Amino acid sequence: MTNVNQNVRVAVVQAASVIMDREASTEKAISLTLQAAEKGANIIVFPEAFIPAYPRGLTFGTSIGSRSPEGRQDWLRYWENSVPVPSETTDRLGEAAKKAGVYLVIGVIERDTEFSGGTVYCSVLFFGPDGSLLGKHRKLKPTASERLIWGEGDGSTLPVFETPYGKIGALICWENYMPLARTAMYAKGVQIYIAPTADSRELWQSTIRHIAAEGRCFVLSCNQYVTKDMYPTDLACYDELASSPHEMCPGGSAIVGPLGDYVKEPVYGKEDILIADLDLRHIAYSQFDFDVVGHYARPDVFQLIVNEEKRENVKWTKTEDGNEKI
What we know:
- The chain is an alpha/beta fold.
- The chain has helices at residues 22-38, 69-80, 88-100, 179-187, 202-215, 281-286; strands spanning 7-14, 43-45, 83-84, 103-111, 120-127, 133-138, 160-163, 166-170, 192-196, 218-222, 226-227, 247-249, 251-256, 262-268, 272-279, 317-318, 324-325.
């Protein structure tokens, strides 16, 4: 796309899910999308796992070598509120993007609709201003206890999309610590690098500022603001939250420019919509002395191979008589 607007208004939505409730979380996302659009946003970003929840503090009744019936009940509830792609939920989100005339990027827990249906993924969905589902990114490696509940994505969902406001793409939370994944994004020319997260640590701020300076891109980091009283008390494993603090995730959403400086400093302690006007010319301005996949690269020494083939457990072929065989 050659006719790129040099100026774009972005919105980073720091808000909590309606925990374990797909329909209510979707309604909240639609309402907040329209609110951000009223502020003039062209691109609107939501946190990791916004629909139906990032289940912080829960282990679903697991310990090494065992699972509990109560944990299975909560898992089933989580699975039932996950998001098939496509589905009525994605249709509604697309309609909201179209009504608002925006690019909408939102974290969801995606239910497998291709194979057994029993796996969920931590994904980011991208919608265009025409309401279309442009594509998705599945988290490549769930972190620590996240591996109990989420499957792994593969290289077939590492998209970067051309828009009238530059190239957009996303990596989720701690997969941003994977330097080769970042390099793949830079090589695809990402200009607005979206980092939905559940990490509210001060160290995360160093991470997103480093990524912006390394990739010479704008970084939109989006987290939830969550308190313990937002959790439904009828969870079968609700007692797992007993030792959790009241403020379970204080936020820390921020917007960073391509030299690593804040465009919008991190916000803590509340739900909020961060609005910023970005000048894409600052990217070329910053690349004068450093372009990580351009004049600062050394392909004679270092090369990255990215496998973008879709990973499949079963491949079907045809016999001479037309019957399928494995």
